[in-house]
Amino acid sequence: VLSVRPAKAMVHCAGCERPILDRFLLNVLDRAWHVKCVQCCECKCNLTEKCFSREGRLYCKNDFFR
After folding, report:
1. Which of 32, 50, 30 is nearest to 40 (CA)?
2. Cα–Cα distance for residue pair 28/37, rounded to 1 Å
3. Does the pTM exceed 0.90?
4. Where are the domains of the chain?
5. One-character DSSP codes across 6-51
6. Could you give the CA distance from residue 51 to residue 12 in angstroms, rounded to a whole number?
7. Could you tell me the Gene Ontology terms of the biological process aspect for this record (predicted)?
8. pLDDT digits (tens, 9 = 90+) for 4-60
């Protein structure tokens, strides 16, 4: 007996909107992201440990408090 299951939905990155095919992804603000796409919207630095958000945009600590 064969059972057919629906294909798992492809996950798209909240930053670049491309499919996430990487082994790892980050879940930030309840959305999936490529690791390389989690960056400050102002200075573009990679946010590897902490990030701050305002109105759905990601910031490093310096730019968030500026």
Report:
1. 50
2. 11
3. no
4. 25-65
5. PPPPPPB-TTT-SB--SS--EEETTEEE-GGG-B-TTT--B-SS--
6. 20
7. neuron differentiation
8. 444 456 889 999 999 998 887 888 998 888 989 999 999 999 998 888 999 989 999
